[in-house]
């Protein structure tokens, strides 16, 4: 791959991360020495010494950058993915969290990863995203793009949820459960995995539908092609139910609401370590083969 001349690199960081204050000034200096302008968000600006210029919103950072450097955990990357995908720019993720399935570079690998990226020595993994429409009384009242999953789930003290699932307008079944997850292959290692869903390789063109604590034990996870249109309809007499998107945005649902999910036109371009395979990352994060 030929070297790419990045003139502007955006920085999105995890809020209130203690070691960000020690890292950010030297990072900005490193970029400036190479003639690269840095745009950074308000969280990064808060970690800089007094007198530094004000940060921008994450949308403004993504709109003005050719590459996004994400400093944080998977939650920070999920937030960044929504703005990066809209502009088609790649993300270089640096793990400052704990588990970090998606943020596969360590802090120690920050500068070598930047050097490799600037020299064109990197690979990009194209990750499918979901387009989620919430329909109420015949009108779409909200549309979101998410990287991991869309979940219909009950409140803390609510009863089981009653909902119907349709795929490509074919009735699948009626669920009585604590919730239902629709995940991308990227999201298969997140909430869906905790609920008993399978791990799906990112290159597999599929969605995973996983019930949460279903009343009927034969209700099992289902894998469908990602060209499918998935509809979930909340049935009447169901209270305290939420549509949760990537674990970061929650919308209160009303009886008979429709949630329609299809593959988004946008994809996330995620820079991956050249010397780490997907399965090596899984072995490391899930501690496979360890006693």
Helix-residue proportion: 10-25%
Strand content: 35-45%
Query: What is the strand tally?
Result: 16
Structural class: alpha+beta
Continuous helix count: 7
Indicate the overall shape: elongated
Cα-to-Cα separation, first versus last residue: 40 Å
| CATH topology label of the largest domain | Tumour Suppressor Smad4
- What gyration radius follows from the Cα positions, in whole Å? 20 Å
Assigned CATH superfamily of the largest domain? Probable inorganic polyphosphate/atp-NAD kinase, domain 2
For the largest beta-sheet, the strand count, sense and barrel status come to: 6 strands, antiparallel
Order of helices and strands: EHEHHEHEHEEEEEEHEEEEEEH
CATH architecture field of the largest domain: Sandwich
What's the overall average pLDDT, rounded? 91
Strands side by side in the biggest sheet: 6-5-16-13-8-9
In short:
The protein is an alpha+beta fold and 291 residues long. The protein has helices spanning 20-33, 42-46, 58-63, 74-87, 110-118, 191-194, 278-286, and strands at 8-13, 37-40, 67-72, 91-95, 123-136, 139-146, 149-154, 161-167, 170-177, 179-183, 206-212, 222-225, 230-234, 241-245, 249-252, 258-272.
Structure description:
There is one protein chain. The protein is of the alpha+beta class and 291 residues long. It has two domains: 8-122 and 274-286, Rossmann fold, CATH 3.40.50.10330; 129-265, Probable inorganic polyphosphate/atp-NAD kinase, domain 2 (Tumour Suppressor Smad4), CATH 2.60.200. It is built from seven helices and 16 strands. The protein has helices at residues 20-33, 42-46, 58-63, 74-87, 110-118, 191-194, 278-286; strands at residues 8-13, 37-40, 67-72, 91-95, 123-136, 139-146, 149-154, 161-167, 170-177, 179-183, 206-212, 222-225, 230-234, 241-245, 249-252, 258-272. It has a six-stranded antiparallel sheet. Strands 12-11-10-7-14-15 form a six-stranded antiparallel sheet, with no helix packed on it. The chain has a four-stranded parallel sheet with strand order 2-1-3-4, sandwiched between helices. The protein is elongated. The chain starts with 7 loop residues before the first strand and ends in a 5-residue tail after the last helix.
